[in-house]
Write a structure and sequence with these properties.
The protein has 396 residues and is α/β, with parallel strands linked by helices. The chain has two domains: 175 residues, 3-Layer(aba) Sandwich (Rossmann fold), CATH 3.40.50; 193 residues, 3-Layer(aba) Sandwich (Rossmann fold), CATH 3.40.50. Helix 9 packs across helix 10 and helix 11 runs parallel beside helix 12. The chain is elongated. The structure holds 3-phosphoglyceric acid. The site of 3-phosphoglyceric acid has 8 residues, from loops.
Length: 396
């Protein structure tokens, strides 16, 4: 694999670098609740600043589709980034542009000194961003001398700041993007046995990966709401549990003459809520009032030896409603099993917003080989889908 690394840019001093990052972080009541993506962008930002580049940082937040929504402004992120950089001995003030392109932004860019950083406003306030519009990309590109993509998490999108912009500037990969691609490549070409663990709800973004894993992996362990569709397709009562039509159709593909394919391992017991009552049940005893909220202890016993024999593990999607205590056991247990096996014995990769939150809750995140900043992009990359953000900077 060849990667055009940011480290191969010559004479960074005085160069204006347009750096695409993913600062699409979760907020609650105006406060950032998880800054993992911001922290993971620091190596590239600091590398550029230390080498005297003039750094223009760009990101999206949410999906405002060309409409200026104050609640999706990047201004709180500018404050958070300043705090983080200052705590790491960066002495200058970072600047924040109230727009993405236009005269005011150009003025701020012109006044930017070597080793200084300017954060642009939310890229998706401009309609051209999500449309991958050439003329918007060209205007954006005119602000800098070189382009660096460090936003692996958005690299599955055909959008101006990750795709069209590369037509107009010499383009490079940031250090985080490099790490993401190298770490995930070990799942694309895995040491066997490869075990894939898939959970969460809707199948739409996960389907290509499950299809791929089903061919490539020794086992695919299914949990979370995703499993409910397999139960239903096999003829079990699922009560009021979460089901969706597309996932149900998808599940049926793996069932032949009433039996699930051998590689796909489904839960054998589940935690259910019925009114205020929480109980553990084998599948055969589920009734119309039950709502499945987690995998059961016998399923954890079934999954454990499979995870323990893996040489490569990929996990996306929680096993249940892990945010609430009575239904957190399955997700926490799976997370701990992966952590216990990773860093040494197996190559363990975890990705997806909720899954990352879950692994952090186990307090064992440090034992995982790679925690991806990406959700959808990771699924697309591992599923072999097009990655417009990687063209010209990553090749096989
Ligand atoms: C993510 O959070 O997965 C990325 O920032 C991509 O966001 P998007 O799904 O809105 O393109």
């Amino acid at each position: 694999m060849k990667i055009k690394s940011v480290k191969s840019i010559r004479n960074l001093r005085g160069k204006t670098v347009l750096l695409r990052v993913d600062f699409n972080v979760p907020f609650k009541k105006g406060k950032i609740t998880e800054d993992y993506k911001i922290r993971m962008s620091l190596p590239t930002i600091e590398y550029l600043l230390k080498n005297g580049a003039r750094v223009i940082v760009m990101s999206h937040l949410g999906s405002p589709k060309g409409i200026i929504k104050p609640e999706l402004s990047l201004s709180p992120i500018a404050k958070s980034l300043q705090k983080i950089l200052t705590a790491r001995a960066y002495k200058k003030k970072i600047k924040f542009a109230p727009g993405v392109i236009g005269v005011k932004v150009e003025e701020l860019v012109n006044n930017l000194k070597n080793g200084e950083l300017l954060l642009l406003e939310n890229l998706r306030f401009e309609i051209g961003e999500e449309k991958n519009d050439n003329s918007f990309a060209k205007k954006l590109a005119s602000l800098g001398d070189v382009y660096v993509n460090d936003a692996f998490a958005v690299s599955h999108r055909d959008q101006a700041s990750v795709s069209a912009i590369k037509k107009f500037l010499p383009s490079y990969a940031g250090l985080l993007l490099e790490d993401e691609v190298k770490s995930l490549a070990k799942v694309v070409k895995p040491k066997q046995p490869l075990v894939a663990i898939m959970g969460g709800a809707k199948v739409d973004t996960k389907a290509p990966l499950i299809e791929k894993m089903h061919k490539k992996a020794a086992f695919v362990l299914i949990g979370g709401a995703l499993a409910n569709n397999f139960f239903k397709a096999l003829g079990y009562e699922v009560g009021t549990s979460l089901i969706d039509e597309a996932s149900l159709v998808f599940a049926k593909k793996f069932i032949h003459r009433g039996k699930i394919e051998a590689k796909i391992i489904l839960p054998i017991d589940v935690v259910v809520k019925s009114g205020n009552k929480v109980s553990v049940k084998p599948l055969a005893l589920l009734n119309k009032k039950d709502c499945i909220v987690d995998i059961g202890p016998k399923t954890v016993e079934l999954f454990a030896p499979i995870i323990k024999q893996a040489a490569t593990i990929i996990w996306n999607g929680p096993m249940g409603c892990f945010e609430e205590k009575p239904s957190s056991f399955g997700t926490m247990a799976v997370g701990r099993l992966i952590a216990a096996r990773s860093k040494g014995v197996a190559w363990g990769v975890v990705g997806g917003g909720e899954t990352v939150e879950a692994i952090q809750k186990t307090k064992m995140a440090e034992y995982i080989d790679w925690i991806s900043t990406a959700g959808g992009a990771m699924l697309s990359y591992l599923g072999g889908e097009k990655m417009p953000g990687l063209t010209k900077i990553v090749s096989k």
